[in-house]
Amino acid sequence: MSINIGNKVLQKLLDIFKINRSQGQVNDGLLIMNNTSFQSVVKEKEVVVVVVVEVVVVVVVVIVIVVVIVVVVVVVVVVVVVVVVVVVVVVVVVVVVVVEVVVVVVAAAAVVVVVVVVVVEAATEAVVL
Questions:
Q1: Max Cα–Cα distance, the chain, nearest Å
Q2: Superkingdom of this entry's organism (predicted)?
Q3: Residues 60-75 pLDDT 10s
Q4: According to DSSP H, which parts of 1-129 are helical?
Q5: Which residue, among 87, 85, 83, has the nearest Cα to 75 in the 3D structure?
Q6: Which pTM was predicted?
Q7: Which of 81, 83, 86, 97 would you label with 116, given CA atoms 20 to 30 Å apart?
Q8: Rg over CA atoms, the chain
């Protein structure tokens, strides 16, 4: 069965490339392989395969470059966001410290005012008496 199919394929190739069997020639495969039009078709197919492989390689390289660029951009954005968050935290801490210092100063001033008021009242009472 497979030999019969193989013979039909060989016969079809012989017909397509218009190859005539010479007398005593029984190897159809060699006839086809040595035929110049068959060889030119094979060469064209090889060129197509090489071009397709080169295009695939170029596309893969471009995809890898784009992925690397995207990863670098994402890393840079993450670093910038982290730096901004750190700066905001530092500013908030400084503001909190300044507010605490102001509160302590105001509390100290209030204590001074209370002490002055108490001293003035005591002096006023002492003078009145």
A1: 155
A2: Eukaryota
A3: 999 999 999 999 999 9
A4: 2-16, 28-34, 36-128
A5: 83
A6: 0.45
A7: 97
A8: 48
